[in-house]
Design brief:
321 residues; mainly alpha; Serine Threonine Protein Phosphatase 5, Tetratricopeptide repeat; 3 domains; 0% strand
């Protein structure tokens, strides 16, 4: 897929359709703007936050302009405000993925304000799970756990096992970072069980479509890896990579590099180098701050190894900024 053509066709095309000649907005215009958000989800899954965040910001500005300059009935007003909140949340996620945490926090705050104003539980769950992930990333695990629990309280009435599985995996990571490894194992077991039941309850919301058995395997691998049990992490990370749909290019790159990191830390430098070099095929298109940081970690581990590992590290260096 040619990224520039895809962007022009799927996101840019909505620019001319946001307002009719009468400047009166109806359901068709809202549908076009929502399709633009769906395209941003697809681009993010394939390429990562670095490449897409500017598009998302422009799309949010477009929606704000419609809200502030067009005419529309009250039913359309709520749809536009909700769409603005969802797009602000996507801007937050993309900036998080790109490593711009303060900007991500601002957009998540905007989205949470919108969710509160509209009393929209679905958007609030989306924002709370995002803020939980960021808090764990920034070494605030207690806050991350509390945010995930708040998301779970709102998600239970939805009756979506896939959504509850996602939230349980966030709780597990927070508990592990808090040092409660027994609690983390218990919540991750719950996440696996709910993932097994994903086809029996209500489907997950569109934004949670990425969550699957692959994601739960990846979290299990991370828990072992972060506990220093690198060999135990390897089979779960391999399973995550094998299970991950190829449409999720950014996640596949991240999974493979995380596998390479665990192999290197487990003393399997040759396998680690093979996985790391194999990940370079993904990096031709993926632009994600998280992926680049993981690549740097693997490069540094290989650079401290033998001659063959150091040669692989030099090849990886060419793909670092």
């Amino acid at each position: 897929m040619d990224r520039r053509s895809f962007v022009a066709d799927s996101v840019g095309a909505t620019a001319g359709l946001a307002l009719g000649s009468s400047h009166t907005v109806g359901s068709a215009h809202v549908a076009e703007l929502r399709e633009g958000l769906r395209s941003l989800y697809t681009l993010d899954d394939a390429y990562g936050g670095d490449a897409v965040r500017s598009l998302a910001v422009r799309h949010l500005c477009r929606i704000r302009r419609v809200i502030n300059t067009a005419s529309y009935p009250e039913t359309i007003s709520r749809q536009l405000l909700l769409l603005a909140g969802e797009t602000a949340e996507q801007c937050a996620w993309l900036h998080y993925d790109a490593g711009e945490q303060s900007i991500a926090r601002q957009y998540w705050g905007e989205a949470l304000t919108t969710a509160t104003m509209l009393r929209d539980d679905s958007l609030e769950i989306l924002v709370l799970t995002g803020l939980s992930m960021q808090a764990i990333h920034e070494d605030r695990p207690r806050e991350g756990y509390d945010l995930a629990r708040a998301a779970r309280a709102r998600a239970v009435p939805f009756g979506s096992p896939a959504l509850l599985s996602l939230i349980a995996s966030r709780e597990a990571r927070a508990l592990a970072h808090m040092g409660d490894h027994g609690g983390a194992r218990s919540r991750l077991a719950d996440s696996f069980r709910m993932a097994d039941r994903a086809d029996r309850g209500r489907p997950a919301p569109e934004w949670a479509a990425f969550h699957s058995h692959a994601e739960v395997d990846f979290v299990q691998g991370l828990l072992y890896d972060e506990a220093g049990r690198h060999k135990a992490a390897v089979p779960f990370l391999r399973a995550a990579l094998a299970r991950q749909d190829r449409a999720y290019g950014r996640n596949r790159a991240l999974y493979r590099l995380t596998l390479a990191r665990s192999l290197a830390q487990a003393g399997e430098a040759e396998e680690a180098a093979a996985e790391a070099l194999g990940s370079l095929e993904h990096l031709a298109e993926v632009e994600s701050g998280r992926v680049v940081r993981r690549l740097g970690e693997v490069r540094d581990l290989l650079a401290a190894g033998g001659a063959a590992a150091r040669a692989s590290a030099e090849a990886l260096t060419d793909h670092l900024p």
